[in-house]
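Fig. S4 source data, part A: sequence.
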Amino acid sequence: MINISLNAFTEFQRKRMEIFSELVKRYWNGELKEVKDLNRLALDIKEKYEFKDKDLGFINDQIRVAMGLEANGNNQFGDELNEIKKIQNIKKPVVSKIEGVCEYCHKEGCICDNVCRYEAQIYRRKKGPVIVNDKCLSCGQCISDCDFGALEDKIEFIPLIDMLKNRDINIYATVAPAIAGQFGDHVSLGQIRTALKLLGFQDMIEVAMFADILTIKEAHEFNNLVKKEDDFFLTSCCCPVWFNLTKKNYPKAFNHMSPSISPMIASGRIIKKLYPESKVVFIGPCIAKKSEAKEPDLKEDIDFVLTFRELEEIFKSLEIELESLDGDEKDQASFGGRVYARTGGVSFSVKTVVNRIAPQRLIKLKSKRVDGVKDCKKTLDYLSTREKIEVNFVEGMGCEGGCVGGPRTNIEANKATKIVNEFGEDSLIMTPYDNLNVLKILQELGFDSMDDIVEEESLIKLLTRE
């Protein structure tokens, strides 16, 4: 009997996105209005995957998490449908523990024992995994590696549906640079923009354009702070895993970290400054971005976070065929901003601006690019113990390959890197300093030039962590 349920759990984990897709279809089409409708969905899942009656609590929790709610173990639904109508943003924790499944796990050396050997320690307990310290980086590795669905990240789309159908609410989608190629070899960014508008979004904006803004800021910071051969600078720009790993474990190195917000946060702050009362939804490859958006000093900037994998299921479930759409093409970001998606992109982009603003610098920008938590940790160990280092600009990415290697991508990292490079080369804008879209945004905010990014106090505050 255990083997039947064990197979059901592992099959369910592989099919989790199909369950989310069914949830999207039924809610979008008005078929989930009462508690009995949710109970019917749970029973349909139970029958399809051959679960036992006692597993209904697990199934219901998976549905709750897919709705953006917290798992609670109840075998029957209650006020969930009313609850999601009131949600303005998803609350922490991002990762929800699903009880009742670990009793079926008899794997030798269960992944819970060692998946976080570089970060938090997760140990298997009778009722499920427990994070036993505060070092969790929200990288999502434990979620990806568990075959049983004992840990799941909340999906933030269902509470958005009513907002997207409300014409009085303006919702903007901001998309990570890694989006290039994620939805098919022949699908353009303009076709994705069209599809998102069909869903009810006001517009889609490249986060790479906000990366251009922050590149200019960090280039000036580097130019001002790195004056001697033994000075060094850590970028904080993109990756919350890199930022949190440094902040929580390496205070000496963290003193060299840029105070800049990430391009994702910048997209939300600036859009809301230009369009008050609007909502901003970030779409990317990363579970950690869901956590970043809920940090106390950042939580009002981005309202919801979706992943590429979730968006792919949304398009499928609502029968939106991207290749058949007319593309609403726009050239919003520079080559430098677009290649933020892969390892080395930040370093390259910042260096182009440093060379532009300070061509006579005696101490040139010498970068080190690291990816993957293990190598990030090795580099931070080295920076914390050496008195003299050979580089002065350090870029870290928590995922191997950079954002293109994120846990919620649709294509493998090597292919994605190639496409990102080609997409960057397609831009008519070579460097962030050449991006007239950035200048237009600054002018709409009441500023006159690129230099105001580091000269005007109110703009500096807008682009800086508290």
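Fig. S4 source data, part B ends here. The CA atoms of residues 92 and 295 lie 9 Å apart.
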